[in-house]
């Protein structure tokens, strides 16, 4: 691994089979992200952004090519090892929040800690994570009792609770109004300032422009 690189994809292809049709979502894509960077990946719908996020986030494997995560060749990992690394090293934020509707903000944020096992300071850590996104007074509210911006802040707190090295955000402002978008981006900038590696997937040029570096993806390849 090159010095400082935490994400390194080399000539990665990803092909899905849909019946008799092969869909080539990634076509020889190479990408390197340095630890502590804030990178935006921008592209149109169908460009391969979500597939790239799934591969980077260890949710899916490349069809070919190499993916080094923090120096580890992910092709050497079995599914359980990938799941453990994903839970320990990565925090995910999605456009649709992906919160459990009947659970409180606190219970939603605790969820990654439940999957990780053990109960040591689980509640305390979840409350702390909610405090970091300004929701210390909303811990017992359910998603239906929160605004869209507040729900996304719960999702960010959930992504932070395991203290991951990398935050992966897939269209995190796509369902938010202008005011909520500004508040969410302020949180991401704060996390980047703390030294977190932040990768934003977006189709919005104004969001991408706020990143330290912008990468454009077209037809499964990185432009340039």
Task: Summarize, please.
The protein is α/β, with parallel strands linked by helices and 224 residues long. It is built from seven helices and ten strands. It has one domain (36-62, 82-219): 3-Layer(aba) Sandwich (Rossmann fold).
Mean pLDDT: 93
Q: Which fold name fills CATH's third level, the topology?
A: Rossmann fold
The total beta strand count reads: 10
Largest sheet at a glance? Answer: 6 strands, mixed
The helicity comes to 25-40%
Radius of gyration: 17 Å
Describe the protein in words.
- The chain is α/β, with parallel strands linked by helices and 224 residues long.
- It has one domain: P-loop containing nucleotide triphosphate hydrolases (Rossmann fold, 3-Layer(aba) Sandwich).
- It contains 7 helices and 10 strands.
- The strands form 2 sheets. It has a 6-stranded mixed sheet, with helices on both faces. Strands 2-1-4-5 form a 4-stranded antiparallel sheet, with helices on one face.
- It is globular.
- It starts with a strand and ends with a strand.
- The mean pLDDT is 93.
Characteristics of this structure?
224 residues; alpha/beta; Rossmann fold; six-stranded mixed sheet; 10 strands; globular
Describe the secondary-structure layout.
Blueprint: E1 5-18, E2 21-34, E3 38-42, H1 49-56, E4 64-69, E5 72-73, H2 79-89, E6 90-94, H3 105-116, H4 122-132, H5 148-160, E7 166-170, H6 178-193, E8 197-202, H7 205-208, E9 213-218, E10 221-222
Parallel strand pairs: 3-8, 3-9, 6-7, 7-8
Antiparallel strand pairs: 1-2, 1-4, 4-5, 9-10
């Amino acid at each position: 691994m090159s010095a400082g690189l935490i994400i390194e994809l080399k000539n990665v292809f990803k092909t899905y089979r849909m019946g008799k049709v092969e869909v080539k979502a990634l076509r020889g894509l190479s990408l390197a992200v340095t630890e502590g960077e804030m990178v935006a990946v921008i592209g149109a719908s169908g460009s391969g952004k979500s597939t790239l996020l799934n591969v980077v986030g260890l949710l899916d494997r490349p069809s070919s090519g190499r993916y080094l995560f923090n120096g580890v060749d992910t092709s050497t990992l079995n599914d359980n090892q990938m799941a453990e690394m994903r839970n320990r090293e990565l925090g995910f934020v999605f456009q649709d929040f992906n919160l459990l509707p009947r659970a409180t903000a606190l219970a939603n944020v605790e969820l990654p800690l439940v999957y990780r096992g053990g109960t040591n300071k689980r509640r305390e850590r979840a409350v702390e994570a909610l405090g970091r996104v300004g929701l210390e007074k909303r811990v017992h509210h359910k998603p239906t009792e929160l605004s869209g911006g507040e729900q996304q802040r719960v999702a960010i707190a959930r992504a932070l609770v395991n203290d991951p090295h990398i935050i992966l955000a897939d269209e995190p402002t796509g369902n938010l109004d202008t005011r909520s978008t500004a508040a969410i981006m302020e949180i991401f900038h704060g996390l980047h300032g703390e030294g977190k590696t932040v990768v934003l997937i977006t189709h919005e040029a104004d969001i991408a422009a706020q990143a330290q570096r912008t990468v454009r993806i077209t037809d499964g390849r990185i432009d340039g």
